[in-house]
Description:
- By secondary structure, the protein is mostly helical.
- The protein is 68% helix and 0% strand.
- It is built from 16 helices and no strands.
- It has helices at 5-27, 30-33, 44-49, 58-80, 83-113, 119-126, 140-153, 165-183, 189-199, 205-219, 231-245, 269-286, 289-295, 298-305, 307-329, 335-383.
- Helix 1 (5-27) packs antiparallel against helix 4 (58-80), helix 8 (165-183) crosses helix 10 (205-219) and helix 11 packs antiparallel against helix 12 (269-286).
- It is globular, with a radius of gyration of 22 Å.
Amino acid sequence: xxxxxxxDGLRGLAAFVVVIAHFVQVFxxxxxxxxxxxxxxAFEEVLAETPLNLLFNGNFSVCLFFALSGYVLxxxxxxxxxxxxxxxxxxxxxxxxxxxxFASVVIAYVCMxxxxxxxxxxxxxxxxxxxxxxxxxxxxxxMVKEGLFHTFFTYGAQYNPVLWTxxxxxxxxxxxxxxxxxxxxxxxxxxxxxxxxxxxxxSYYLAFVIGVLLSDLQHSGRDRLxxxxxxxINAVLLAAGLFFGSYPYIHPAGTLYAVLLWExxxxxxxxxxxxxxxxxxxxxxxxxxxxxxxxxxxxxxYLGKISFSLYLVHFTILCTFGCFLFLQLSAVLPYGINxxxxxxxxxxxxxxxxHGFYRLVxxxxxxxxxxxxxxxxxxxxxxxxxxxxxxxxAGEQAMD
Length: 400
């Protein structure tokens, strides 16, 4: 079974938005922080308070990542009922995530000890209060522990702050595999879905549950999502999903998002609405051939292919090369022109570096895992059959 290209395209667009989000966080921080005194442009308030923030709402994109993981990691099992898929994917999951992530930590560490971090030098100009990513302990042992353990088991994110998502990805993935092994074919799973939704209502882990549920509805026997496959329903789902997904970083009081609040001292509205928005957008994509064609286009498919690499390397490049370029140009150019040039040149550098990282790191690791999977699982399964000709579907390629 091949990858679902249009879902890769959706992941690629989400990764691109994360890149934009960190540009905004560094160079137009009032849009994220809501502080008028650090505003550089008059339009920043509009960006912060309206659905235009979808252009840089990185947290919503992260929730899309999680929902996509729930769907992609489970759909083959629902199509085939083959438990080998789950065993194989569970064993490989840490290595699939940790290999590229650790490489990105090493790159950030090298930049740190080489003194290439420039974020601390530019935040006096930009006003950003984001913590300096190069202020971590520059110890080789700390770097190794962070890259291989804390990032995946304690929500650690030193050296490369974007890695805060990796613990969610690992634990969420392992939960999916355990859930499917225990009750993936039993009717009681729908009761458990409801219980999990209530339990994880304002948690990022809810996105994984929603992804698995959508996969279940679409691939367990018959396509139940087809019952709501109407153009107007897709339009409503997409619009609602994008509205919830644009829930702002700033406090929503006084904005059009104020209607989404209710009395609560502990509920995390920021996470809840982004997760719900991700689920609605994914549902609309699964039911819309037009969206699938758009997201399956050559450009989106390419973004999807390098999405993990793009996500992993962009922040380090932004806080080294990007900040250095901005600092050099700040002496001769107005803030707006400087920012435009810095964004264009740095984005081109990030894309080129992400492409190289994909070819030299991510693709190599995927190939190694795929070869290992074929030897350990597919090969063993074929050997156990006596002359059967039925094709084996247990993870023909490493699962994202």
